[in-house]
Amino acid sequence: MNLRRAFCIAGLAGLVLASSTWAQKPTDKPAVTKVRIGAEDDWRPYAYVQAGQPAGFAVDLVRAAWEAAGVEVELVPLPYARCMREVEAGKLAGCFDTLRDARTEDKYLWHKYHLFRARIGIYGRSDGPADPVNVQALRGKRVGVTNGYDYGTAFDDDPTMVRDVAASDLTSLRKLVAGRVDYALVFDRVATEIAANNPTLGQGFRLRGVLLEPSLYLSFSKKFPGVEPLIARFDAGLDKIRKNGEYARIEARWR
After folding, report:
1. For the chain, give me the number of helices (H) and strands (E)?
2. Residue 33 confidence class, pLDDT cut points 50, 70, 90
3. Are residues 229 and 112 part of one domain?
4. Are 190 and 149 contained in the same domain?
5. Full-model pTM
6. pLDDT greater at residue 4 or residue 21
7. Average pLDDT rounded to a whole number, residues 102-122
8. Is residue 13 in some structural domain?
9. What SS3 class is residue 248?
């Protein structure tokens, strides 16, 4: 065997050994294939519980995005305020639907493109003044809000606002009709659902203005282990269902 051939054989042996060592000690962690996400349990038509299971427009979007990303999702239905506490503590990877603004921006991690947009309505009593109402007109009035919800910085950061906190939008609207608050802040499609399911109550309140039309997200926990790759997977899944038409099909089902 000549010297050149000996060097070639030794070099090939080294490459095989290096490849074998790399294969036995991978540096990449296995991709996450399952995740637990909190889903609000009482926010028709977006997220609620039906027959013991999460349902709604946002629920269908989130499920479809994770499926498109190749990740099995377990949705945990919870009251919104508790859901967000679980996320802040790192017990859940995320929760939806969260309004993203200056107050919430640094509390959570976010995917790139919102799930959807929705309008927050300002509701008054049917027998009350019919004049249009904006956020400035709420100052000095008793305003019904729901525990744990965000309503945008113009309202949430104004110390002059008199807030009456209820456990749910339904309770807030009941207080409104009973005369216990002057106005109630409720997303308009949620108020429409409540009126449809409670016709007598629905006759007692009317939309008097729009507070704002925010973007809603799945908010991710800063404390949940390995959350950054999950966000990237969710972004990819959400982008995929927008491009392949699944998002539009889900939207059409819930119109």
Report:
1. 9, 14
2. confident
3. yes
4. yes
5. 0.85
6. 4
7. 97
8. no
9. helix
- pLDDT at site 31: 63
Instruction: Compute CA distances 222 → 61, 73, 87, 109, 206, whole Å.
Output: 23, 19, 8, 6, 40
Token pair for residue 179?
């005369």
Q: Which domain holds residue 145?
A: 120-212
Q: In what order do the strands lie in the sheet with 47-50?
A: 42-43, 47-50, 53-55
In a shared domain, residues 150 and 186: yes
**Maximal CA-CA distance, the chain:** 104
**Structure token digits, residue 15:** 């490459």
> Is residue 108 domain-shared with residue 176, that is, in the same domain?
no
- Please work out, in degrees rounded to the nearest 5, the angle formed at the alpha carbon of residue 211 by the alpha carbons of 146 and 46: 55
- Report the CATH number at residue 70: 3.40.190.10
* Residues 124, 182 contacting (CB under 8 angstroms): yes
Half-sphere exposure of 156 (CA within 13 A, CB side): 15
In whole angstroms, what is the distance from residue 150 CA to residue 101 CA? 9
Domains identified in the chain, total number? 2
CA angle 221, 96, 79 (to 5 degrees): 100
With beta carbons less than 8 A apart as the criterion, state whether 97 and 43 touch: yes
Instruction: Give the tens place of pLDDT for each residue, 41-66.
Output: 999 999 999 999 999 999 999 999 99
pLDDT of residue 30: 54
Report the C-alpha gap between 166 and 71 in whole angstroms: 36
CB atoms within 10 A of CB 196: 10
